[in-house]
Amino acid sequence: MQDIKKKFWLERFDCFSVTGKDARNFLNGITTSNILYSENKVTKTCWLTPNGVLRSLIEINFLERNLEVIILAGNTQEMIDYFNQIIFPADDVLLSEPFLINRIQEIDESCSWRNYQPIFFKNEDKEFEIYKNKLNLVNSNDLKIWKVNQAIPSLDMEINGKNNPLELGLKDLIDFNKGCYLGQETMSKIKNVSSLKQEIRIWKSFKSNLNLEVEDTNLYINSAKDLSVGKITSFFKSNSQIKGLAMIKRKYLEEGSCFYSEIFGKIIINKSVGSIFL
Question: For 152-182, what is each residue's pLDDT tens digit?
């Protein structure tokens, strides 16, 4: 029996299998972590554009006969289509059709989500229901708040075709010593010259009546909107709590922890639990 005090995150994600003797080399050339020499059974990594923008946050599950690619945040079909386009006829690599997989992970309010290794169950696995029923699973509202506190990016929000993984606090998912991979040149350039223009932050608002008709997602230095300091990327409202994620320009992070949003009023900025910006 699992310790009832521990909390667990259960969610279904898209997944596809990669088989063949060249599978590891193939994935190593298009993701940011070192797939060839990973010491973990599950490796968290990123798929980038050639310009270093985050396309997908993924995990790779190393099985005996194949690798499973779990898409935590991203467009599954876009990834499969791209992978298929760059597989050469001589490559011994085969992608499966996408399927759903159940992912379970212990969560901690004070530690990064990346400190824990997940386990996976397919829907047809007989032990899945038995195992699941023993766990103290967090409800959907608490899970959303926890994900905000962890600064876990979402598709079309933080993963929006503009932000790179360093700005999103995912530096530990990038191996700067491995060989060439998609987006490597940009990642190395940013790291070597420390040229991050913005960083992800969590924010909290105490406003009860939101002006959701306003489409202005900018954050300002004050209520007079004298200066834009960043943009809100996502928010979640639960009871009296309104929290979200924002990309803040680095040069204004030392100006203080309070900014202004036309939608959310005065907001408090904090560093996240799960990013490198601790």
Answer: 999 999 999 999 999 999 999 999 998 899 9
Cα–Cα distance for residue pair 1/120, rounded to 1 Å: 18
Separation CA 28–CA 179 (nearest Å): 9
Chain centroid to Cα 196, Å, comes to 18
Rg (CA), the chain: 20
Domains and CATH numbers, the chain: 7-150 (3.30.1360.120), 197-270 (2.40.30.110)
Burial per residue of 170-200, b for 16 or more beta-carbon CB atoms within 10 angstroms, e otherwise: bbebbbeebeebbbbebbeebeeeeeeebbb
State the Cα–Cα distance between residues 244 and 236, nearest whole angstrom: 6
pTM for this model (two decimals):
0.93
Q: Could you give the dihedral angle defined by the CA atoms of residues 121, 126, 131 and 132, in that order, rounded to the nearest 10 degrees?
A: 70
Distance, in Å, from the CA atom of 208 to the CA atom of 211, rounded to the nearest integer, reads 10
pLDDT digits (tens, 9 = 90+) for 128-153: 999 999 999 999 999 999 999 999 99
Inter-residue contact 158 to 198 (CB < 8 Å): no
